[in-house]
Design goal:
heterodimer; A: alpha/beta; abc type-2 transporter like fold; 2 domains; 4-stranded mixed beta sheet; B: alpha/beta; 14 helices; 5 strands
């Protein structure tokens, strides 16, 4: 038997063993099948940054026709649920007991100052959720503008009127940026988290050392470990792709082939991290915790998926350059929504390819060292 | 009674040794939460510190220059380019070099001077529609300021209502003020649940659990012996993050430590209970980690950590009554920032207590059942 044939037979045999191990362990099936579906549902339906309705305590100290009309405008807004309060103390208690999210106070001189030209109203928001509070501030401008436009002598809006267009996502549908990020997350979990654990288990139990006495080379060993998890990862990718198309109707404006290529390369990177971490620490607990800290959390928090990179301080933004997920998210978001933009694609694809090659090489070296 | 106590104490000591003896495992229990707390405290923000924009000014008038000067002086908008051709707009947006492009028509000033409604077109990169929306919001504020200045200097002023917003408990609406206290619960839940789920599974996989069973230990003693060390480690992690919040991020702690630690203890009891519950139904460490992970992920995603709890679909909101993290986030933030006391927090304490009691007794029952 020629050497190359023997080599592929060995790889094939171990790949089959590895595949059977996945198929027969319910927990691996869970992570391959359940995780992508769960993530699609969680992110697709559970994640929304809009505050649907805020409840507000109203203190009307003016008790004029003007203040009543303004409160009426707030009542009409679908974003506010109003509750009257007699005093500031009562309203404060409502906030502390979480009965309301904020307070609207109309001072006693509201009507008088409005007729003098400039009135003031006060809104107190509970800042414990800074994001929610900021969204609420924005909502408050609606009813106020509506009311003042209806008053005689009011200047509506102002001379410059901004008309904005959101390219790539005209309807402002948050699924558009969630689906590309979702693919990256699913790949990270399957590629890094699962692989790290499985390979660490073999080290922990000594079955990997047992393989060293066979004619199997270190490189062959790695290839046969990678293949089944690569297939599992691509299965997750296809699930996300289908959900994006048929559940969330996210347009795919770039090339499908480039999208597949980009996802495959990122999957190899994730597998590389998983293999390297497990070869390095050789303990299931440590490997899974490290994989989670090094890949999953950054893929969620430091990739530009949920929190935009532009909003981070310079040092943190510097750290994100070391995170493969950052490049994958930029790549997939552009391919999905903007199309084949050469400058974005080649740069990010190049960095990911280099990372994949480096990680594979490092894993290969780390495994060989164990043989000696 | 006394011998039972002695046995539990011995087991607690053994558990602490098992976890803390290995320097790598000490390192993995404390270092990742510290690093994650530091990074996410800064990274997890929906505010934009800088918005890169390009301008296509066809007017070149005093008015358009004044508007742009106001924009450049805002400290947030950074002008990356001044375009001279309409075709360049797509180039700057596609490549991601500009988040928005402002297009000023050539009769901008003429319209303004005539007192007409003057359109101003803005194109935003909607690949992350949330970021684009935030940037457009900032832009409208700058334009609103420009409008009111223009009206007062050109005698077009009318009546206006000014909305004064005050934010309670977080005066500058600083994202890290709501994020870092939330991380106390999030990061300790990840560590504690994983560690607890693994502690029994590890003994089972290594065969030492059977040895433990032939000792005079009763099942509930084993359970208490497993629960207490993990609870203490969780409290130590929580204290570490609390110290970072106060001394690194300098977020003022308003509440009482007694209330906070009472809440954290209940929360960690629930987390340990869930971990023990997982470990009583699995056979291997790998399964324990995967099942723990399958619980942690939706719990973290649907707790209100990244997106407002109230904007989740109501079916998910009601499914999350079993999520201890959801109560813990509310509790820690409110004790930390608002100084809420026991009476304000009944709605958080009670569910945590119920979850803790149910999971711990459920796990005890499962333990006993598996022993017979």
């Amino acid at each position: 038997m020629p050497e190359w044939l023997a080599k592929w037979r060995r790889i094939w045999a171990l790949t089959r063993k590895e595949t059977r191990q996945i198929v027969r362990d319910p927990s691996s099936i869970a992570i391959g099948g359940v995780v992508p579906v769960m993530m699609i549902l969680l992110f697709g339906y559970g994640m929304s940054l809009d505050v649907t309705q805020v409840s507000v305590a109203v203190i009307d100290q003016d008790r004029s026709a003007d203040s009543a009309a303004l409160i009426g405008a707030f009542r009409l807004s679908p974003y506010f649920k109003l509750q009257s309060a007699r005093s500031m103390a009562q309203a404060t208690n409502l906030v502390l007991d979480r009965k309301v999210d904020g307070i609207l106070q109309i001072p006693s001189d509201f009507s008088r100052r409005w007729h003098d030209g400039a009135a003031v109203i006060q809104i107190m928001v509970d800042g414990t959720d800074a994001n929610e509070a900021r969204i609420m501030q924005g909502y408050a401008e609606g009813p106020v503008a509506l009311w003042s436009a209806a008053q005689p002598g009011a200047v509506s809006g102002g001379p410059v009127i901004v008309t904005s267009r959101m390219w790539f996502n005209e309807a402002n549908d948050s699924h558009y940026f969630i689906v590309p990020g979702l693919i990256v997350l699913v790949m990270t979990i399957i590629g890094a988290f699962l692989t790290a654990m499985v390979v660490a288990r073999e080290w922990e139990r000594g079955t990997l050392e047992a393989l060293f006495v066979t004619p199997m080379r270190a490189g062959e060993l790695l290839v046969s470990k990678i293949i089944p998890y690569f297939v599992l990862g691509m299965f997750g990718f296809v699930l996300c792709l289908l959900a994006g198309q048929f559940l969330f109707h996210v347009p795919l404006r770039g090339s499908l082939w480039l999208l597949c290529l980009a996802s495959m390369i990122y999957l190899v990177v994730a597998l590389g991290v998983g293999l390297l971490v497990s070869t390095w620490v050789k303990s299931q607990f440590l490997a899974s915790q490290l994989a989670m800290t090094l890949t999953l959390m950054p893929a969620m928090m430091l990739s530009g998926f949920i929190y935009d990179l532009r909003s981070m301080p310079t040092i943190i933004r510097g750290i994100t350059y070391a995170m493969p997920a950052r490049y994958a998210v930029a790549l997939l978001q552009t391919l999905y929504l903007a199309g084949n933009v050469g400058s974005v694609i080649w740069l990010n694809l190049g960095v990911l390819t280099a990372m994949a090659a480096m990680l594979m090489l490092a894993t290969r070296l780390a495994t060989r060292k164990q043989l000696s | 009674m006394r011998s039972s106590l002695l046995r539990i104490l011995a087991l607690i000591q053994k558990e602490f040794l098992a976890v803390l003896k290995d320097p790598r495992s000490r390192f993995i229990i404390f270092l990742p939460p510290i690093i994650q707390c530091l990074i996410f405290g800064y990274a997890a923000s929906f505010d934009l510190n800088s918005v890169a924009y390009a301008v296509f000014d066809q007017d070149h008038s005093a008015a358009s220059t004044a508007l742009l000067a106001r924009l450049d002086g805002s400290g947030i908008f950074q002008r990356e380019a001044t375009l001279s051709r309409a075709e360049d707009i797509a180039v700057w947006i596609d490549s991601g070099r500009a988040l928005m492009v402002i297009q000023i028509d050539q009769d901008f000033e003429r319209h303004l001077l005539a007192g007409d409604a003057t359109p101003l077109e803005v194109i935003a990169d909607g690949r992350n529609s949330n970021t684009a929306g935030t940037a457009l919001g900032y832009f409208s504020h700058v334009v609103a300021d420009f409008n009111s200045d223009w009206q007062s200097t050109h005698g077009q002023a009318g009546q206006s209502v000014q909305i004064l917003t005050r934010s309670w408990y977080n005066p500058n609406l600083d994202s890290s003020w709501s994020m870092v206290p939330s991380l106390i619960g999030t990061l300790t839940m990840m560590g504690t649940m994983m560690l607890t789920a693994l502690s029994v599974a590890r003994e089972r996989e290594q065969g030492t659990f059977d040895q433990l069973l032939v000792t005079p230990f009763r099942p509930f003693e084993i359970m208490i012996g497993k629960a207490i060390p993990n609870l203490v480690i969780g409290l130590a992690q929580a204290t570490t993050i609390l110290l970072i919040a106060q001394f690194w991020f300098r977020i003022p702690f308003i509440g009482s430590f007694v209330v906070l630690y009472a809440g954290l203890t209940l929360f960690l009891m629930a987390a340990v209970g869930l971990g023990l519950f997982v470990s009583s139904i699995v056979k291997t460490m790998q399964q324990a980690m995967l099942f723990a992970f399958l619980l942690i992920l939706p719990f973290a995603m649907l707790s209100g950590l990244t997106t407002p709890f109230s904007s989740m679909p109501s079916i998910l909101q009601s499914a999350m009554v079993i999520n201890p993290l959801r109560y813990s986030l509310d509790l820690t933030k409110r004790v930390y920032l608002e100084g809420a006391g026991f009476t304000n927090l009944i709605a958080d304490f009670l569910p945590l207590l119920v979850i803790g009691v149910v999971t711990l007794s459920g796990a005890a029952w499962l333990f006993r059942r598996r022993l017979t």
